[in-house]
Amino acid sequence: MPCGRYSLHDPHDRAPLGEEHFQCATGPSGWRYVSQLTAPSGDRTGSVDLTLDDLGRPLRLELTTPHWQVRGAALDGVTWVRTDQAGEHAREGNASAHAFTGASPAFLVAAARLLRPAPGAPPTRVRLVAFAPPVLAPRTLDQAWALVDSEAHATDNGPLTVDHYQVSDLETGERHSVHIAGDVVLAAPGIELEDLESPPSAFG
Q1: Contact indicator for 76, 137 with CB cutoff of 8 Å
Q2: How many other C-beta atoms lie within 10 A of the C-beta of residue 196?
Q3: Residue 75 burial by CB count (10 A; 0-12/13-18/19+): exposed, middle or buried?
Q4: pLDDT of 159-191, one tens digit each?
Q5: Distance (Å, rounded) from C-alpha 170 to C-alpha 156?
Q6: d(CA 169, CA 83)
Q7: SS3 for 19?
Q8: Per-residue pLDDT tens for 62-94?
């Protein structure tokens, strides 16, 4: 069960945004990721709880910030309920999308697991509903994912395969690279893996 810590920063000016302390695990029915987020001051700023089925579809999502909460799942596309923490202003939403995304590295692993592009194949298009902190307002966006290459690296625990993806925002044309090993993001815009207590899990 990998557990560790990501540092988060603004990908444009590298201003620190905080840290995400996580643990995740694969199983016969899919994958689960849970994390706690903290500000640069150390104050708690939210949490992520994401469960995927064995095909990479979101079985359950729960995001929290100090004032907002989202719960969602793959249902008629994707369906979610967004509410304030007091539960007084709940609003349900639905979109013809494949999955969710957001600031957490968990969503990069989830997208790669859902799409599973083949090396050298044309980019795979995906429609996602994004929830951005701190207010978790939903926004639908389209991306294209391509697997550029996979490279095995020798480690004390055996070879570690690192997948290099190119992700394109189909609205803006912006492209960036994402490097993933198993169920851990090694590098991506705004994300750096600072600490990992056990090796990444390999998906079956």
Answers
A1: no
A2: 16
A3: exposed
A4: 889 999 999 999 999 999 999 999 999 999 999
A5: 40
A6: 28
A7: strand
A8: 999 999 999 999 999 999 999 998 888 899 999
